[in-house]
Amino acid sequence: MNKKILIIGLGITGISCINFLLKKNIIPSVMDVCNYPKFIQKIPSYIPCHLGSLKEDWILNSQLIILSPGISIFNNILLKAKKKGIEIIGDIELFARYNTTPIIAITGTNGKSTVTNMIGKIMKKNNFNVSIGGNIGYPVLDLLSFSRDFYILEISSFQLETIKKFNIYIAVILNISQDHMDRYPLGIKQYRDFKLRIYKNASICVYNTDDILSYPKYFDQNKKYVTFGKFSGKYTLCYNKKGIYLQINNQKILNFNKTKLIGIHNYLNALAVLAVTDLLKISRKISLQEISNYLNMDHILQIIHIENGVTWINDSKSTNINSTKAALNYLYKKKKIWLLLGGYDKNCELYLLKKYLQKKNNINVYCFGISSKKILSIYPKAKIVKTIFQGVEQIIKLVKYGDVVLLSPACSSIDQFKNFKHRGKEFVKIVKKLHNSK
Q1: Residue 201 buriedness (CB in 10 A; 0-12 / 13-18 / 19+)
Q2: Which candidate in 180, 265, 299, 346 is catalytic?
Q3: What is the value of pTM for the model shown?
Q4: Domains of the chain with CATH codes
């Protein structure tokens, strides 16, 4: 790789790219729009570094640009570079050019972290030597240091923007709905097009029959296709008086009511998981046992406090409309739901929540952050608070036995927090603090 290389973005991904190139005795130039990137101390002093903006002459004089997923490929300077013929890739593509280990890759608007972790747990239980990376776990380039049977990767649409030869053994798309519309000037179609790139160099494609957007655009006779969905596909759900079942080719094999999984969305996640583990010929007994005992990850419908018959739930990872709908669907039988909604809406169509909220007469909405006025315009019954703290402070005085308080924001956290984890942790602290001070 004897090229003039520029790395743009100095977060965890950018640092992993620097370390990877230095191991190959390649010294890149680096750049970040932030004046003081978090990991600036980890960059050796001899590496040329520009901070505070995208330096156009550096970009246009590069031969290869490695772009962090947080930087949009639609930036005007990067579009100029592309037009000039300068190659722009991300860490996923760089990794793909050196990787020889089989990959299981999962994407989707919602559920990808859960499915990635569930598959990892089942494979480890079955004595596969695996590592998890990508959008969670290790940066992918760090995985190349580990000898593994498989890499299991969670992949975002941002990471898929810059792939070219990303060879995958099993590629999964769980679902596609509005998210990151601030990033995609052509809307949901463009977002979908990037998601579908995961199928391009995959041997096996697993997709959701309920969600037409997740279908491959073209079916290739050289690929294998496996389907799952509520009512159609190889892996489906079956409803009867005794419960909701996981069903394969019309044969019931697991009653979800006897598992620790929460919500229909997680039952669908389990279908995708079993489709993958069956393809790997893993003992179905092990797979079903792990699925049955799987507990939600932190910040996903996480029960954080129960007092006086009131349940407090942290669903901070709900950063789009569909994930919040899934949370409300799970809780619809509750007496009253106090919903904390808001943040940065990413230009998504929040009005899609309007009919949903109007149908339910048991939801009280408290909205915060940049999107609070937009939420109020679509749902005038909502109350605006400046912060989550203010919201919890007001709600705690009004809740009654049987109520649920739910942080499920339907928005990104970046207007008031570092990320969804920071938002969730702060919510937990606030709830504990206000209960202890009563």
Answers
A1: middle
A2: 180
A3: 0.88
A4: 5-89 (3.40.50.720), 94-293 (3.40.1190.10), 302-436 (3.90.190.20)
